[in-house]
Amino acid sequence: MANLIFSFNTVAPVFLLVAIGWLARKTSLVNEPFVDAASKLNFRTGLPALLFLNIYQAKAADFFDWKFVGLMASGCLFFALILCLTVPRIVKDKSKASAIIHTVFKPNVIVLGFPLMIMAFGEEHSAAISMLMPVLIPVNNIVAVLILCAMDPENDDAKTHPLKKAFASVMKNPIILAAIAAILLQQLGVPLPGFLTKLLASLSNMATPFALITLGAQMTMSSVLSDRKYVVSATILKVLVTPLFIVPLAWFFGFRGYELATAFLVSASPSAVNCYMLAREMRSDEVLTGEIILSSTFCSMFVIFIGIFVLKTLAIVS
């Protein structure tokens, strides 16, 4: 019951922040130009700061199991490849197809997966997910940018080669640059000045709430009704199919205990909140992206609760 309560307490603020954004837009407290400017500001400051600090300040694990890290990263990327090969054949609209692919393969490890792992099993058993974060988060963000660039409708312009445009976007993307900088500084042991750490902490604290409020300001009932089939399909893929693919794969390669629990929590986590910011910035369908984030967040609460119950019942974790 404690895990269910924790999951609810984690998810409820998400919906309330989105509701604030939706009400602000409905009451004309904010308008479209403001939302555009706020989204761009957060994309270039808050979210990069959040990612940078989560990677830079990640606790060193007692051991670094490259086999486990490699399995999780390659499993997520292989699933993304399957989606890239299948979804565009079914969903002809490139912006909607990229939104589905992006949200299905990219988990919300920072906001939900990591704290839930600590809540459920304690900090002493968080080594597996701690060593995943500095690798999985930047890899997923880089792949997400590549996918969104490759499926950008403007790439139909023959003057711009999709791969060149994707590479240029990756090199200029503030989230990617923040991840690379954090990894380099962490590995080189470079300390950050106190004032810079406080600045980044202040920016990172506003990132998720700001992203959710601007997400809510973009929500419309007509889009919810028209995109219902895509939202349902993407949610099922995210919170059910993904863990059914990743967890048996981890079991097959011999991982048990808290590593298997980590594989489950990462794969069953809902779509990452910054999917919305990337979609909005890179001409994917940001409204559909936001709907999938909300739906997968709500549904994952129940899936994760059931999964933790099964793991403990089968004595896979203590």
From TrEMBL:
Keyword RNA-binding (UniProt): no
Origin superkingdom: Bacteria
GO cellular component, as recorded: plasma membrane
Repeat found in the keyword field: no
Keyword set, alphabetical order: Cell membrane, Membrane, Transmembrane, Transmembrane helix, Transport
UniProt cross-references to InterPro entries, sorted A to Z: Mem_transp_PIN-like (IPR004776), Na+/solute_symporter_sf (IPR038770)
Compartment(s) where it occurs, according to its Swiss-Prot or TrEMBL record: Cell membrane
Membrane topology term: Multi-pass membrane protein
Similarity field: Belongs to the auxin efflux carrier (TC 2.A.69) family.
PANTHER family: AUXIN EFFLUX CARRIER FAMILY PROTEIN
Annotated protein name in UniProt: AEC family transporter
